[in-house]
């Protein structure tokens, strides 16, 4: 099932006036794709999911499942959830507390008035898929968080939905369980090839799970693309700092042209830009730009030169194989990932940026 | 350790005193019903235990006590069920659906329940006369439903508000209609609240005196409280023994009901307390 959002907006009327929870979002999610919607809390990602499910009506735009319009205020079309064949997994699991696991999983089938024999088989199959066959008699209150999550996934899958919606399904699990469940979820989706919309505020989850990612901020789409595209070519400083951990460094810089060569000046250092970046840089001449560089593309030097910034180490976070250094320079604060182990705090260091890995953000791309 | 035990003893003593204090009127009631002479506490009166009062109350045709009891049970049960049914639909709508002017509506409902019954009863009598409902079950059931509805609605709202909204959303996704969500999800999950609200409505109707006095004329719809109060008119003097025997029998259904739903109600009362 292909899922299309076309200029979709959702405006809520509150006591303090209108709030645009989703503003003019256009997305196309391909058949069988695992699509992650990423953003900080309050960015409208849950509203987008509710719009896809039919729990909310859009105030503008059109939502299509394949070529079937499921919601369009202009054409007065709105299909309620039960006519959409979507399934959803909630952050709170939303298991029915008065029913045991079997009845929870069977619930959507019973509502659809399926035959008992079919229900039994379908529940058994779903339970086996998620490894919860031995829990069928238990009540939700007697299950651990991970088991509850499995039950809610089984309940969502038992109907063979055409669209699978997940609303931060892993955020209530502890860290270790989360990694394991993440991998299983990906396998399961691969196997079933259901078009999946996955909401998360955790960029690691979005990067590892999503075939593609859409980044949302304040109800608007910031950027959509594959995890690699999002990582390698962030369109704004928001995308640059939200995706990737530790986040990208942003250094105030100025574009200069000297002897026909485009250079970048920041702090007391200058950098000659590689050829593929000069086109972009030329347009930003004489403007305040931000230079973006990921912590793993910053190298440490023992001696100062024209390309280095000098600073002092303010903190060291050992991460095992590497360490994350916080370095304070006169123009900014810089994070560096390094394998160098014999550094101490307050030590004087010189940092150098890899010119091929530098990102430039003009004034329009600078969003906090 | 010693202090612990001391505390426990004090606690038990306190509990015992409270229970004694609360139960002593009932004990006195039952004893008066059982004794031959109601003034058995006087020094020169012996305490003769007898079932004759109970026998009179139950067996004597002129007393009609069993008719009163039947009326009471039917009217109270019907008004409790109807009241909770309407209140739960309203509570669902108010807690889950975008009702305009919700807060205003809720306080209006609460304000309605503040009218003293005395101010309404004469108009109610006129209304029931016009409808020809004097001395009928529906003539009492409808006022009782109207009277208990605001309180039931407020109690149920606090229970329904505690049922996570995600359950509604899950129900919608799983293919439920709004009514199915109410019946298959909200009702079972909020069952303690439903039961305790129903019991409160039942006890209210079971105890109600004024409306029952005004709107009934004989045993075909008269309820127990009014029936017992009018016992004295049957004999020349106040028949304390019969009154107490009848009152004792009347408490039995309420006690049974409370015992049956005890666990659910306790669950409900504490939950209601937290939520205010």
Structural features, described:
The complex is a heterodimer of chains A (368) and B (276). In chain A, 25% of the residues lie in helices and 36% in strands. Chain A is α+β, with helices and mostly antiparallel strands and 368 residues long. Chain A has two domains: 3-238, P-loop containing nucleotide triphosphate hydrolases (Rossmann fold, 3-Layer(aba) Sandwich); 249-365, OB fold (Dihydrolipoamide Acetyltransferase, E2P), CATH 2.40.50. In chain A, strands 7-8-9-3-10-11 form a six-stranded mixed β-sheet, sandwiched between helices. In chain A, strands 2-1-4-5-6 form a five-stranded antiparallel β-sheet, with helices on one face. A five-stranded antiparallel β-sheet of chain A has the order 14-13-12-15-21. In chain A, a hairpin with a 2-residue loop joins strand 13 and strand 14 (269-272). In chain A, helix 2 (101-111) crosses helix 3 (116-129), helix 2 (101-111) packs parallel to helix 4 (145-157) and helix 3 (116-129) crosses helix 4. The longest helix of chain A has 18 residues, at 175-192. The mean pLDDT of chain A is 91. In chain B, helix 6 (137-162) packs parallel to helix 12 (240-275) and helix 7 crosses helix 8 (178-189). Chain B is 76% helix and 0% strand. Chain B folds into two domains: 1-50, no CATH class; 64-275, Orthogonal Bundle (MetI-like fold). Chain B has twelve helices and no strands. Residues 271-276 of chain B have low confidence and may be disordered. By secondary structure, chain B is mainly α. Chains A and B meet through strand 7 and helix 2 of A and helix 7 and helix 8 of B.
């Amino acid at each position: 099932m292909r899922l299309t959002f076309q200029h979709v907006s959702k405006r809520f009327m509150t006591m303090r006036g209108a709030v645009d929870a989703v503003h003019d979002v256009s997305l196309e999610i391909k058949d069988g794709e695992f699509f992650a919607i990423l953003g900080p809390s309050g960015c409208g990602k849950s509203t987008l999911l509710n719009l896809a499910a039919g729990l909310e009506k859009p105030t503008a735009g059109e939502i299509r499942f394949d070529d079937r319009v499921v919601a369009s205020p202009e054409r007065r079309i709105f299909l309620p959830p039960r006519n959409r064949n979507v399934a959803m997994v909630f952050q709170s699991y939303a298991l029915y507390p008065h029913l045991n696991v079997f009845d929870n999983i069977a619930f959507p089938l019973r509502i659809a008035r399926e035959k008992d024999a079919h229900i039994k088989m379908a529940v058994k199959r779903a339970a086996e898929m998620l490894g919860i066959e031995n829990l069928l008699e238990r009540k939700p209150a007697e299950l651990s968080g991970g088991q509850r999550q499995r039950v809610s996934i089984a309940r969502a899958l038992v109907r063979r939905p055409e669209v699978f919606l997940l609303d931060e399904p892993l955020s209530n699990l502890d860290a270790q369980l989360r990694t394991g469940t993440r991998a299983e979820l990906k396998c399961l989706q691969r196997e079933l090839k259901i078009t999946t919309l996955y909401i998360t505020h955790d960029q690691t989850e979005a990067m590892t799970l999503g075939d593609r990612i859409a980044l949302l901020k304040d109800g608007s789409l910031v950027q959509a693309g594959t995890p690699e595209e999002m990582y390698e070519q962030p369109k704004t400083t928001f995308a640059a700092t939200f995706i990737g951990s530790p986040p990208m460094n942003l250094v105030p810089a100025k574009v200069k042209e000297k002897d026909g060569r485009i250079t970048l000046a920041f702090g007391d250092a200058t950098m000659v830009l590689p050829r593929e970046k000069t086109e972009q840089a030329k347009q930003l001449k004489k403007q305040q730009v931000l230079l973006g560089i990921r912590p793993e593309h910053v190298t440490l030097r023992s001696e100062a030169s024209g390309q280095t910034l000098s600073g002092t180490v303010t903190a060291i976070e050992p991460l095992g194989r590497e360490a994350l250094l916080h370095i304070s320079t006169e123009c900014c604060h810089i994070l560096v990932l390094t394998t160098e182990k014999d550094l101490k705090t307050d030590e004087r260091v010189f940092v150098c940026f890899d010119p091929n890995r530098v990102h430039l953000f003009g004034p329009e791309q600078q969003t906090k | 350790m010693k202090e612990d035990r001391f505390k426990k003893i004090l606690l038990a003593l306190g509990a015992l005193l409270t229970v004694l204090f609360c139960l002593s009127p009932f004990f006195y009631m039952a004893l008066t019903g059982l004794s031959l002479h109601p003034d058995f506490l006087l020094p020169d009166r012996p305490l003769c235990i007898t079932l004759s009062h109970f026998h009179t109350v139950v067996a004597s045709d002129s007393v009609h006590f069993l008719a009163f009891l039947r009326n009471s049970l039917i009217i109270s049960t019907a008004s409790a069920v109807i009241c909770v049914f309407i209140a739960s639909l309203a509570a669902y709508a108010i807690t889950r659906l975008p009702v305009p002017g919700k807060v205003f509506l809720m306080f209006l409902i609460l304000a309605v329940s503040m009218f003293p019954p005395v101010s309404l009863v004469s108009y109610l009598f006129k209304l029931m006369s016009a409808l020809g409902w004097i001395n009928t079950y529906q003539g009492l059931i409808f006022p009782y439903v109207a009277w208990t509805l605001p309180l039931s609605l407020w109690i149920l709202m606090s229970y329904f508000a505690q049922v996570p909204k995600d359950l509604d959303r899950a129900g919608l996704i799983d293919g439920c209609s709004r009514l199915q969500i109410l019946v298959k999800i909200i009702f079972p999950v909020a069952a303690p609240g439903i039961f305790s609200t129903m019991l409160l409505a039942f006890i209210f109707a079971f105890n109600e005196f004024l409306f029952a006095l005004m709107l009934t004329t004989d045993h075909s719809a008269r309820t127990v409280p009014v029936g017992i109060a009018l016992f004295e008119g049957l004999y020349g003097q106040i028949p304390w023994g019969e009154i107490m025997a009848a009152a004792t029998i009347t408490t039995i259904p309420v006690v049974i009901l409370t015992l049956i739903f005890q666990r659910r109600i306790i669950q409900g009362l504490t939950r209601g307390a937290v939520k205010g």
